[in-house]
Amino acid sequence: MSLYKLAIRPILLQFDPESIHKFTFRCFKLFQKSALMRSLVSAQFNVKHPKLERELFGLKFPNPVGLAAGLDKNAEAFDFLGSMGFGFIEIGTVTPKAQDGNPLPRLFRFVNDKALVNRMGFNNQGVEEVVKRLRQKKTEVLIGGNIGKNKITPNEEATSDYIKCFEALYPLVDYFVVNVSSPNTPNLRELQDKEPLKNLLNELMQVNRSKEKAKPILLKIAPDVNQSQLDDIIEIVTETSIDGIVATNTTISREGLSYSKDQIKQVGAGGLSGQPLRDRSTEVIRYIHDESNGSIPIIGVGGIMSKEDALEKLEAGASLIQLYTGFIYEGPALVKAINKALLNKEI
Q: Which Gene3D superfamilies does this entry report, sorted A to Z (predicted)?
């Protein structure tokens, strides 16, 4: 058992989830300032080998294991997180203006099921603050920019918010993820409907093509879409020529939780992540891969709590994977374990 699971995690679990997250990030920001600390952590967790490298949408990833958006919302600790063995870090979701997000409490653990429920609501300090931090980047870690719209922006004007974020982050990130699938911003998921989604992606691609060098744009989708919606998404991704799909975001379902109905009800609304999401996320990845004949690159995320879960996502058709809840419950040793498993298995 890793030091994290043996000694650190039991202490972290004694505190309110969001409070301990803020404390942890204060530590990460402190550690990030030290090249020696980054080097020591990298020596412990980084697995480097040509077999782990992946080339996708014009980028070379040192390994296929990334950190999903949501953890480093404000681009505060990406250099230090990169030293933990990740092949890439996705920051955000970032919106044009700073916003507080939803009222507290808004982050909850279901420890027995290795799950979290969050209703954060795109809380972030706004794209200008994120830009300032990205300009101070010290390492070569690949950065994805996950972009969204402000809560007060009506859906009819949402495209403008995505374009503002795209323009601001364009010089500083390696790829973009369009987030229209969070369950925690009112009516956001309506942007997944066929016409609004097609219009949004077409306009973003138009701006992207006007640049000297276009950046990869991916779409992050919900696990709660039905087969017909998935078919529409595959068609739209092909039509608009965006670069891929991130599958999946959190779910509004509570299936797979072992807790009582009253305990689940007490937590309330929000997106469920972690182990209960694993099978549905894999199912969505496999469907997209099969229906598109493998033509759409997929970043697989959702319920990866072990090296076996990671291999399952890759075998289902994901080209890269991301951790979030698995990283919180298992620590950076999980990143190392997945990369070591990949070295021993041809994928």
A: Aldolase class I
